[in-house]
Amino acid sequence: MPSYKELLAQKAKLEEQLEAVRVKELEQIIAHVKQAISDYGLTAEDIGLASKGKAKAKRTVAPKYRDPKTGATWTGRGRAPAWIAGKNYERFSIA
């Protein structure tokens, strides 16, 4: 039966061989993939590496309330501005 040190040496040798074979095979695979991309005119979107289309755009919301004194508006979303907070919103309604 081999000793612990002998087995460790074998392991190190096998790991070196594994890495050498991996690098060699990767070179071949990368060349094959590049050729396929070139042959078929593929893009990053086609193979799922980039998003298709545009990102969702934020929609702007029309204002629902207007301050008659300053002309400032508020959509009704988020925290109410000081000019309308605690007051009857109907007074400031645009439509």
Shape type: elongated
**What is the overall number of helices?**
1
Biggest sheet: strand arrangement: 1-2
Structural class assignment: mainly alpha
Distance between the termini: 91 Å
Please provide the count of β strands.
2
Q: How many structural domains? A: 2
Q: Biggest sheet, open or closed, and with what strands and sense?
A: 2 strands, antiparallel
- Could you give the order of the helices and strands? HEE
Poorly predicted spans: none
The level of helicity is: 25-40%
Q: Mean pLDDT, rounded to whole units?
A: 90
Question: Can you put this structure into words, describing what you see?
Answer:
- Helices cover 39% and strands 4% of the residues.
- It folds into two domains: 1-50; 58-95, no CATH class.
- The longest helix is centred in the N-terminal third of the chain and has 37 residues, at 4-40.
- The chain has a two-stranded antiparallel sheet.
- The chain is mainly α and 95 residues long.
- It starts with a helix and ends in a 21-residue tail after the last strand.
- The chain has one helix and two strands, in the order αββ.
- It is elongated and about 90 Å long.
Keywords for this entry:
95 residues; mainly alpha; 2 domains; two-stranded antiparallel sheet; 1 helix; 4% strand
